[in-house]
Structures are given as structure tokens and as C-alpha cells.
Amino acid sequence: MVGVRRVAFVVAAVLLLFGEPWSVLVLLPEWPVAGTVVGTVVFGVAALSFPVLMVLGHGPKQSDAAARVGDVTLGAVWVLFTWSVLTHVLRLVLLVSGVDDPARPRIVAGVTLAVAAVLLVSGNRTAMRVPPVKAVDVVLPKLGAGLDGLRVAVITDTHYGPLDRTRWSERLVAELNRLRPDVVCHAGDLADGSVAKRRKQVDPLGGVQAPLGRFYITGNHEYFGEAQAWLDHMASLGWDTLHNRSTLIERDGARLLFAGIDDPTGAASGLPGHGPDLAAALDGSDPEVPVVLLAHQPKQVAQAREENVDLQISGHTHGGQIWPFHLLVRLDQPTLSGLTRHGPTQLYNSRGSGFWGPPFRVFAPNEIALLTLRSA
Fold it and tell me: Where are the transmembrane segments (predicted)?
């Protein structure tokens, strides 16, 4: 019964995603018969192929070629669907203005297609660029004067995957090193796929320079593949893997604890010892020493505030990645991006440095966060 419901949901979602833009772009404008037939065939083939491509690309076989086509299709149809819905307002304006058929639906179709094309082109450029730096000052009252001005660079959600972004990875590392941070953190969702398939893209991260530490935690996507293998591989690249553990850094007599916990999906992964364990990560910590916690999902701040963690660094949301998907993300997470306060705990949520799936970012730019920690 669960399987039947899942299939029914997928069928309904595909019909809605492809059917709405088909009606706006093909059906309602009443094009000549040849145009209507060609448009219907294009949407029909895309709708039938899409689920197959996603299963082949992101299922057990992990066909990168299928994933690339499926991901682009997903991004394109999501943007077309969104703006097909929104341009119904334009249809109403044209009706009130006295514009007659068939001009009215054809104007709507043209505007929909033009807006979608602009957003997809600009969204692809944003997704594929080296992320710009977002500088933020964070005041930690317990931070000692010796660590005042500590520079923490944050990357997250790199999602190395079906597109070979080795060159992008090298440029990302060059930008990080240009910033000369004291500490660099990767807050999870490193790659999609096995170490064997993705290590070429990930290995440039071994060149990141940070004199006081490079820290990495798992995200949910590691648990769709080889979480422990990625922890081991990042450790081999010289990163400190905060797998429910912590590391103390010191400078000029001041101390700061960097702790990290697994993503919640680790608890159901079947891997021994995986799943978030904040008590283990903070075991033996000095209550006078401020704590920076790496936790992939912003909602993990609920546990962090109970332990009086000073600062949590997260990712996961991508800032929504493709507008207006952020509305769905907000149903599950307390914040999309930026610095917020949750009781005694401050939370910095990065929009992420890469992208998952569709190579587009629409109204949700990527970033390298550069947090400068300040004492009171």
C-alpha cells in the first residue's frame, strides 16, 4: 500500500509540474495544429522520461549521464511551473485591459518563456561560479582576547556529483586560501556518490590552508552513500573529522572548542556509532570555554541551545536554491540563511557553496561565509 501511494504521488507531481506549463505554453494560446502537436510531444516525452532519468541517475545505478539530463529537466520544469502559475496574474491584467484572444494567452506564453529563460541562464551562472565571500562578525561573550578576530571560513553543501567540477573545486580552494582564514569548516553534504567516483573533485580540498584547523562533518547526503568512507577520506586529506567529537584550539592563552555532530539521518543508516550525539561531542568540555558546533541542519540548534552552545554553524537549506522552493524548506527548518539567535545559542546558517541536482540557483546565491569572532 505504501508503494502504491508513493507511485500515485510521483505520477500526480509529474502531471502537475509538466501539465501546468504545457497548458500555458501550448494548449491555451491555440497555436496552429503543427505547433500544438510538437509542443505536446515535447512535454509528453519530457514528462515520461523525467522519472526514469531521476531513478537511473540518483538510484542504485548512479548513471551520471542520466542524472545530468534529469537534473537539468527538474530545474527547468520547476522554473517553468512557477512562472506559469504566476503569469495567470498577467492574464487577468490583460483581460481587464481589454486585450482579446488569441493575443492574450500568446502574450502570457511569451512572457512565461522569456522570464524562465532569463532565470535559468542567470541561475546557472550563479550556481557554477566560485562563491562570493559573505563577511559576518559574531560576538561570543566568553571568547578570550587572544582569539578576538579569529577568522573562520565556512563552506558547505558542495555536493560534488554528476557534473565534473574539479576545476571549480580548485578555484574554490584558491579563494579560501586568498582569505587567509585561521580555521576552515565544511558543514556537510560534501559529495553525492562514492569516494571512488567523486574523489577527483574532492581532493583539491586537501590544499586548503588554515593554521588552527580544518574541520569537517557529515551531512544527510553522505548517508545516501558512503558516510564513513568520506570521513576516512577527508581525514586522509588532513581534515579533522568531527564525528561526534571536539577539538580545542588555543591562541595567546585563549581557548575555543570546535565540536561536530553527525547529521540526524545517520541514526537510521545502520552504521555503528553514527547519528548525532552532542553529549559525546561535548564530553569533558570546560563550561568556561566557548563552543562552536558544526551541525549540518539548522534545526539541530534545538539541542545546541539546551547545552548552551555559543555558536552553531549549519548549511543544508541552500537558501532554497531555486525560488520559491524556500517556502517548503521553511516548513522543516527554523531559518534559511544568516545569523540568528536561539536562546543562548547563535546560529549561522550558510546558503551553501555548491548546489544539489539542478545546476541552477535562482534568488538564492551561493557563498563562502567568513565569520570573524569577536570577544565581548
Answer: 33-56, 77-97, 103-121
pLDDT digits (tens, 9 = 90+) for 194-247: 999 999 999 999 999 999 999 999 999 999 989 999 999 999 999 999 999 999
| DSSP-assigned letter for residue 89 | H
Helix axes 64-96, 33-58, angle to 10 degrees: 140
Q: Which amino acid is at 39?
A: G
Residue-wise pLDDT for 193-205, tens only, equals 999 999 999 999 9
pLDDT(37) > 80: yes
Phi, psi dihedrals of residue 297, rounded to the nearest 5°: -100, 135
CB 140 within 8 A of CB 311: yes
Find the length of the chain: 376
The helix or strand, by DSSP H or E, that contains position 368, with its residue range, turns out to be strand 368-375
Instruction: Give yes or no for a contact between 114 and 143, defined as CB atoms under 8 angstroms apart.
Output: no
For helices 227-236 and 195-202, angle between their N-to-C axes, nearest 10 degrees: 40
Strands 213-216, 183-186: pairing kind: parallel
* DSSP conformational letter for 342: E
Give me the residues paired with residue 134 across strands.
Answer: 369
Residues 244 and 218: beta-carbon distance below 8 Å: no
Q: Among 213, 240, 248, 243, which Cα is nearest to 228's?
A: 243
Cell 539567535 locates to 341
Distance CA 133, CA 182 (A): 15
